[in-house]
C-alpha cells in the first residue's frame, strides 16, 4: 500500500514521521483538536507516543493515518481510516485541520484522496464517518468528499456534560467520484 499520495491540488498525504513532533504539539494546542482525543498531547513525549501509536496501528492493519501537508511540507491536518474491519471491508474516516488551514478546502480534498486510497490501496468497500450536528463545517467536508448522509445517531457523544447528536455519512467504493473542488 502506498504511504504517500500527491493530490492534483498540491496536497500531500504521507505517514506521520518523528520529525512531526512539533507540528503535532502545535496542532493539539487548538481546543477543537484537543477535545477529540482522550489523552492530552501536551509534551514532546506525548507527541512522540501519538506518532508511534499511529505507526503501530498502520503496521497492525488496524488504522491508517496520514499527515496532510502542503508542497513545502507544512502540516495542515490529518486524515485517518480506522479502525478497519477486514471481514466486512469497512473503515471509519476521521479528519482534522490546523486552524490556519481551515476554510480552504484542505479537509475536503484530503478526505477525498484518503477515501480513494482506502478503496484502491486498502481494498475497503465501505467508509463511514460521523460529525456532531452542531458542526456544519465537518458536514460540508463529508459531503464534498462524496459521503452521503445515512442518518442521525441520537445523543451519541457527550462533551462537558452535554449529549449531542451525530450525523452519520458513508461512501461506497461503487459510488461516483465527487466533483472536483
From TrEMBL:
Domain N-acetyltransferase intervals: 11-173
Coiled-coil regions, chain positions: none
Pfam family, one: Acetyltransf_3
InterPro entries (UniProt xref): Acyl_CoA_acyltransferase, GNAT_dom, Ribosomal_N-acetyltransferase
Signal sequence residues: none
Domain of life: Bacteria
PROSITE patterns per record: GNAT
Classification via Gene3D superfamilies: 3.40.630.30
Protein name in UniProt: GNAT family N-acetyltransferase
Organism: Streptomyces lavenduligriseus
Amino acid at each position: 500500500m502506498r504511504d504517500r499520495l500527491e493530490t492534483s491540488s498540491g496536497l500531500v498525504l504521507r505517514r506521520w514521521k518523528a520529525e512531526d513532533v512539533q507540528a503535532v504539539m502545535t496542532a493539539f494546542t487548538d481546543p477543537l483538536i484537543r477535545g477529540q482525543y482522550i489523552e492530552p498531547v501536551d509534551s514532546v513525549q506525548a507527541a512522540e507516543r501519538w506518532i508511534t501509536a499511529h505507526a503501530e496501528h498502520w503496521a497492525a492493519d488496524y488504522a491508517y493515518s496520514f499527515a496532510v501537508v502542503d508542497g513545502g511540507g507544512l502540516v495542515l491536518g490529518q486524515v485517518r481510516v480506522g479502525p478497519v474491519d477486514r471481514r466486512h471491508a469497512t473503515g471509519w474516516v476521521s479528519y482534522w485541520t490546523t486552524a490556519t488551514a481551515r476554510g480552504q478546502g484542505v479537509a475536503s480534498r484530503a478526505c477525498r484522496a484518503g477515501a480513494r486510497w482506502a478503496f484502491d490501496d486498502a481494498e475497503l468497500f465501505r467508509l463511514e464517518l460521523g460529525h456532531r450536528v452542531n458542526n456544519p463545517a465537518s458536514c460540508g467536508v463529508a459531503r464534498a468528499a462524496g459521503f452521503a448522509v445515512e442518518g442521525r445517531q441520537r445523543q451519541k457523544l457527550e462533551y462537558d456534560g452535554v449529549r449531542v447528536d451525530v450525523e452519520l455519512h458513508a461512501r461506497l467504493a461503487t459510488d461516483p467520484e465527487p466533483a472536483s473542488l
